[in-house]
Design a protein that fits this description.
Layout (H helix, E strand, L loop, with lengths): L9 E4 L5 H12 L3 E6 L3 H13 L4 E5 L5 H15 L4 E4 L14 H29 L10 E6 L12 H21 L4 E8 L8 H4 L2 H8 L10 H12 L10 E4 L14
Parallel strand pairs: 1-2, 1-4, 2-3, 4-5, 5-6, 6-7
Helix pairs in contact: 1-2, 1-8, 3-4, 4-5
The chain binds 1,4-dihydronicotinamide adenine dinucleotide and beta-D-glucopyranose.
């Protein structure tokens, strides 16, 4: 038996040309999966990540698609299925912020974030589920018919002033994930989320890139370090593998304790 827990499985990671998606794509590849590196901008980065996955011994391909557009999502899945036969793992990771004080927030800022973060995950989850149901379980690959990992956030539970659109989208991801999980468990499809705390990536550079900003951020993190994309990638490999076969409908917080109400360490 192979030591690589995802040997022979086919994964698609959205928004994989940077940050958490990049780390997840590389980790899934190292665990033996073939990986679609989805991107919307950053073709060069996507190709570099594909090359790095290939160098680690797995197959990979880059596919450009805007996850908020139904036709683009459908043709991305079609291309993957035509090339590799099916899909076993979806990591719905692509996400954006468009921050604004609530009174100043435009409909465009609200809609854009909801379109990418929530509708984008809906479209990708639906295509994956359709294929999982069509194909069913292949016991030589996995005990389940398919695995979905939604990239949520601590802000699915922590309200976030100045980011109402973003926090709302992640709250929606949580209820969407649990509802799909409840509906699909009988089909042996597992659906879970990862809810990262502050992870140093391009989405939040201003929160960690200067010593002053980092010191402020650490006040919110009991474990006293800013997270790295690999912290999330390791959790993703576990949730995608049969090691978590009895786990469905959970949101796995990987946050150094950010959700532990750190203000109450001394207050209250
Ligand atoms: P990032 O900005 O490096 O990654 C987001 C990726 O999504 C980028 O590669 C971007 O090009 C892609 N993307 C944006 N719109 C897209 C679209 N319409 N179609 C396809 N791809 C699109 O930032 P990061 O941190 O790696 O974000 C990844 C996910 O992790 C996001 O869903 C984010 O909300 C979530 N997250 C990040 C945290 C952090 O502290 N970095 C904490 C909690 C959640
Ligand atoms: C946001 C980051 C933020 C982190 C912790 C994430 O969902 O995208 O900008 O640093 O939550 O607040």
């Amino acid at each position: 038996m192979s030591l690589e827990v995802l040997q022979g499985q086919r994964a698609l990671v959205t928004g994989a040309s940077s940050g958490i998606g990049e780390a997840v794509a590389i980790a899934l590849g190292k665990a033996g999966a073939k990986v679609v590196v989805n991107y919307i901008t950053g073709e060069e980065e996507a190709n570099r990540i594909v090359a790095s996955i290939k160098a680690s011994g797995s197959d990979a391909m880059a596919i450009r698609a805007d996850v908020s557009k139904e036709d683009q999502v459908q043709s991305m899945f079609q291309q993957m299925i035509e090339t590799w036969g099916s899909i076993d793992i979806l990591v719905a990771n692509a996400g954006v912020q468009r921050d604004a004080d609530f009174a100043e927030m435009t409909l465009q800022q609200w809609q854009f974030v909801l379109d990418v973060n929530l509708t984008g995950q809906f479209l990708c989850c639906r295509e994956a589920v359709r294929e999982f149901i069509r194909r069913g379980i292949k016991p030589e690959l996995s005990r389940s018919a398919g695995k979905i990992i939604c990239m949520s956030s601590v802000h699915e539970v922590i309200p976030w002033a100045g980011h109402v659109n973003y926090a709302t989208s992640k709250g929606g991801v949580n209820m969407m994930m649990q509802s799909i999980a409840q509906e699909m468990a009988v089909k042996k499809i597992r659906v879970n989320s990862i809810s990262p705390g502050a992870i140093s990536t391009p989405i939040n550079t201003s929160a960690w890139s200067t010593p002053e900003a980092e010191a402020e951020l650490l006040k919110l993190i009991p474990y006293q370090r800013v997270g790295k994309p690999d912290d999330i990638a390791r959790a993703a490999v576990w949730l995608a593998s049969d090691d978590s076969d009895y786990v469905t409908g959970i949101s796995l917080f990987v946050d150094g304790g950010m959700t532990l109400y750190p203000g109450f360490r001394e207050g209250g």
